[in-house]
Design brief:
Distance between the termini: 58 Å
Number of domains: 1
CATH topology: MetI-like fold
Structural class: mainly alpha
Strand content: under 5%
CATH superfamily: MetI-like
Largest sheet: none
CATH class: Mainly Alpha
Helix content: over 70%
Number of helices: 11
């Protein structure tokens, strides 16, 4: 049996045996990623909608910067957060370095541009006829804009799924600002990195399989949510 086969067997063993270290890392991964995703969505969706509909000087320059930050290197994001939160940094007195909060901040830097950028692209590619039809039927400009947002909800959901995948699989920033502390800031990705460095390839592959499985399940859940929302919207539209 090769390394991948042994890793698969090890993954099943870790899941079935309720291995404490694995489940602690999984819990930290989900807690940090979902928290970062929530804050990024709360800020990113309104900003994305605003940038999609507003017209002002310098808008294209802002969007160019935003599209650039969609590919922000995780290790650079981690470095920036590290410098901000270190003892000599402006936020050093808060003592947030090597805590889950620091990891959440770093992941927000990675997820926020993705949500903003893909929301803008989704709204720009949506059927503009929805706005014209709504205005023709007597809707206000704001109501017409909301109709367009609803029409582009699947594209916006795609932004959430993409941001989740980027944040969940991130390792560079988590290592820098979290420190990979067992029982506190160790995630599946940082645990995988540690096991690889120690030569425990079976366990590393097992953690990688678990990470892929969790990401797959969350993405399926989000996709099902989007499909149910789309079907509900279509029914209301027909009614």
């Amino acid at each position: 049996m090769g390394d991948i086969g042994r890793g698969l067997v090890q993954a099943v063993h870790l899941i079935v045996s309720l291995d404490p270290g694995t489940y602690e890392a999984l819990g930290t991964s989900l807690r940090v990623t979902l928290s970062a995703l929530l804050w990024s969505a709360l800020v990113g969706f309104p900003l994305g909608i605003l940038l999609a509909f507003a017209h002002f000087r310098g808008k294209q320059g802002i969007m160019n910067v935003m599209y650039t930050f969609m590919g922000f290197p995780p290790v650079v994001a981690g470095l920036l957060v590290y410098l901000l939160l270190s003892r000599s940094g402006p936020l050093g007195p808060l003592e947030l370095l090597y805590t889950p909060t620091a990891m959440i901040i770093a992941q927000i830097l990675l997820a926020l541009p993705v949500i903003i950028g893909l929301t803008v692209l989704g709204l720009r590619s949506a059927d503009k006829g929805v706005v014209d039809l709504a205005l023709t039927l007597g809707a206000t400009r704001r109501q017409a804009s909301f109709a367009l947002v609803r029409d582009a909800r699947l594209a916006i959901l795609g932004a959430v799924i993409t941001a989740f995948g980027n944040a969940m699989s991130e390792v560079g920033a988590a290592m820098l600002v979290g420190g990979n502390i067992e029982g506190a800031t160790r995630t599946l990705t940082t645990a995988l990195m540690l096991e690889t460095r120690q030569g425990s390839f079976d366990r590393a592959i097992a953690l990688g399989i678990i990470l892929l499985l969790v990401s797959f399940l969350v993405n399926v859940l989000l996709s099902r949510l989007g499909e149910s929302t789309s079907e509900t919207g279509n029914v209301r539209h027909i009614d």
